[in-house]
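Lab notebook, bench 4. We co-purified these components, and the gel suggests they stay together. Before we commit to crystallization screens, I want a quick structural picture of the whole thing.
Request: model the full complex, all chains together.
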Amino acid sequence: MGIDEVRRFNRTVSQRIGALNDAYMARDRPLGQARVLWEIGADGCDVRVLRSRLDLDSGYLSRLLRSLESDGLVVVEQNGADGRVRTARLTRQGLAERGVLDRRSDELAASMLEPLSESQRTRLITAMGEVERLLVASMVEVAVTDPRHADAQYCLRSYFDELGARFDDGFEHARSLSATSDELTLPAGLLLVATLHSQPVGCGALKFHGDEPAELKRMWVSADVRGLGLGRRLLTELEHQAAAYGASVVRLETNRNLTEAIALYRSAGYTEVPAFNDEPYAHHWFEKPLGG
Amino acid sequence: MGIDEVRRFNRTVSQRIGALNDAYMARDRPLGQARVLWEIGADGCDVRVLRSRLDLDSGYLSRLLRSLESDGLVVVEQNGADGRVRTARLTRQGLAERGVLDRRSDELAASMLEPLSESQRTRLITAMGEVERLLVASMVEVAVTDPRHADAQYCLRSYFDELGARFDDGFEHARSLSATSDELTLPAGLLLVATLHSQPVGCGALKFHGDEPAELKRMWVSADVRGLGLGRRLLTELEHQAAAYGASVVRLETNRNLTEAIALYRSAGYTEVPAFNDEPYAHHWFEKPLGG
DNA sequence: CCCATTCTCTGACTATAGTCAGAGAAACCC
DNA sequence: GGGTTTCTCTGACTATAGTCAGAGAATGGG
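Here is the predicted assembly.
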């Protein structure tokens, strides 16, 4: 269902965008160098970040930087905080050449719109926006993650920060019911973390209680990826995990201010039930049976 | 208007499709070889066609074929008709390896759909279809072409064939009003030919009469590119050309069976007028003033 | 039938991309 | 404060991509 259409799209798009884009980049400098020049950006960039973003061998990247340096486009200087890390920065000449690449990108985009009528342009841009958002959504990876992992910690911190900002009287960790790292580690429970380009962008957790309902906790989605359906995806995945670990019901509590979460739960088939715990910050309690 | 959105799209798509696609292709053979293997296809392919489709140097392509041949994936044999042309054909082993590439393309497509919900998939496929069609439309090139050129001849032949098939009593060239090659060559007139991937896919012509209305003739769009707005694009371009060569009115005659053409003329602002010539195959005469 | 053209191939290169091992300096972690 | 890890760099390679000139066979066009 849809594979052929996707492949047609992939073909057309590689031809019309992939190939031309590379050709434009490589016009007056090897593609590898041009990519590095572009990626450094106007504000400079740590070499280690370049390496991971472009997925280059450290020796190879070093050599690319050396050649850009000898052409006077880049300087690589000590980073203040950490003596091992070095930061690449564009010289005035480097900025100028990056500007040329920028203009070429504009030209490519313009050449795609130019032959089309006004109404076709509007349709193209709308459809591109839709494809782009959905492709980004499909690049998000969701994986069971140790709550002590840096990505997990970031998500949990962001989650608590958001609660503090949105609850009527703020949020104080100590007053709330617990969900320690141990409680969110198998076999007691688990934590899912969603990442986009290796950056954490969302999470959700489960606490298991044997045959008793599993508790859903710590649902958080970064504002950067709102609208990509990540909340629903995390929820679905958590339900699958709960079922796989033997729960036949999932339940959760939530605060009245988290309206989009409440809407999500309702639309995913959760029904409101009487309070099943004494979480002081909760106003609503939901549960859902995990049918076969 | 829209440049930034297009650039965002280009970036996301190069990352998610361009890069991965190449990586998949290159997994067990250099990218160059893999591309040739793919392009030869199940039915074989003339070497000259490979060269133009992949835009490769003839020496380089020859070497790539040699290495595929020595791996037992390809045979290059004499083409029957022309002793200079050689045809590459996949061996059984070559077909098998191409099958692997085919499966990888499927996997890539599937991996794009897999993380999405059912409704997101439907939206993605719809939007991809729209983008793909409009990108193809934007790849069509329209240029003033000598009517004696092979592409022009192909279009005119196709045009007459179509008239023969669609008119109530067929179409006989000799009975119709003329528009010879000379009449469709500047300064007497001109012919626009539309090409997609260097293949002719449509045409349209003008005959100039000084200050008098220019005559629009020979509008044809290949069935392969229907729905891409090419008819309207040719019409618009012809009107610009007519204006540029001093005409203030364009007029044309057409047959009642060419309903989509008639609809196009009406929607582009043409109004029906009394017969201004005695073209035996015409039922409707239209004209349009070229306002500044 | 001869001359120009087309098509493919080989030889002889250069340029780009990428890999791997190892070294030296700085920072981190008990 | 000593061992481990992180970060960057150099040296020494290999592999891939691509270019250019020219040769030889086949064809096409006067």
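Strands of chain B lie at 45-46, 74-78, 86-90, 141-144, 189-196, 199-209, 212-221, 249-254, 271-273, 284-289. Worth comparing against the SEC data before the next meeting. The first helix of chain B runs from residue 3 to 25.
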